[in-house]
Write a structure and sequence with these properties.
This protein has 238 residues and is an alpha+beta fold. It contains seven helices and 15 strands. Helix content is 24%, strand content 35%. It has a six-stranded antiparallel beta sheet. Strands 11-10-9-6-13 form a five-stranded antiparallel beta sheet, with no helix packed on it. The longest helix has 13 residues.
Length: 238
């Protein structure tokens, strides 16, 4: 459908769905070399709608539909890259492949986290240690409104990166319980950096994902995250 829209000269593509559908749409637009010609919009109708939430679209109403389709303003925004895969909202790792396949609950997923030994290098720094998860953000929200901070911006040319240090399972559950009430999760157990590119090497295979999409089953031990050279024209609320 996207290929047909590009071929036939359509100027706007509105995604009715969530982060995964938006990811697939933008990936296809970029692969077709149409990211400078097409304007993309989102009507939140997915599971988590975290990117829509980041731009102020929490609920799908008639007024929102009218605003986005006919009155929304166009803004050029960043796109992230994880080992060559595009992401608009976030990427990272920590969950096991089985958690993705079995669609485990958030609580069960938290209890399954194990320390990951890694080395991270970026423009002006290096970090070595064990961490339960790594989240690389282009926009702040994940898993239905959870967030470490509201700092991430979609057009600053930088990624906001959060390393979660090993803590007890009870501590971890309590941290994420705060997120259920809309509170930021970041605290002294979170290491935060901001950069345009970072390379991570892990001792054992991890399963990095983009925008909540299932990861590749073979996993990876070398993962690079950076800002793509391509931008996307996006429809925003007035």
């Amino acid at each position: 459908l996207i290929a047909l829209a590009v071929r036939d000269g359509y100027e706007r593509i509105i995604v009715v769905g969530g982060d995964g559908t938006l990811n697939r749409t933008i990936t296809e637009i970029i692969k077709l070399g149409a990211n400078e010609k097409i304007v993309v919009g989102i009507l939140p109708a997915g599971t988590c709608n975290d990117f829509a939430r980041a731009i102020g679209l929490k609920h799908l109403t008639g007024a929102v539909i009218k605003n986005i389709i006919s009155e929304g303003k166009v803004k050029k925004i960043d796109i992230g890259l994880m080992n060559g895969e595009y992401f608009i909202n976030n990427s990272g790792f920590g969950r096991s492949y089985e958690n993705f396949v079995n669609k485990s609950s958030s609580f069960k997923t938290l209890l399954s986290f194990k320390p990951i030994h890694l080395t991270a290098e970026w423009n002006d720094g290096q970090l070595k240690g064990s961490f339960l998860m790594l989240l690389v953000c282009n926009a702040p929200y994940f898993s239905g409104g959870f967030h470490f901070s509201k700092k991430p911006r979609i057009n600053d040319g930088l990624l906001d990166i959060y390393f979660v240090k090993p803590v007890s399972k009870i501590n971890l559950v309590l941290k994420f319980a705060k997120g259920k009430f809309g509170m930021p999760i970041a605290d002294r157990d979170i290491t935060y950096i901001k950069t345009n590119k970072i390379e991570v090497t892990t001792e054992n295979s991890v399963f990095p994902q983009v925008d909540g999409e299932p990861p590749k089953p073979e996993g990876a031990t070398k993962i690079s995250f950076d800002i793509a050279k391509e931008k996307i024209n996006f429809l925003m609320l007035n």
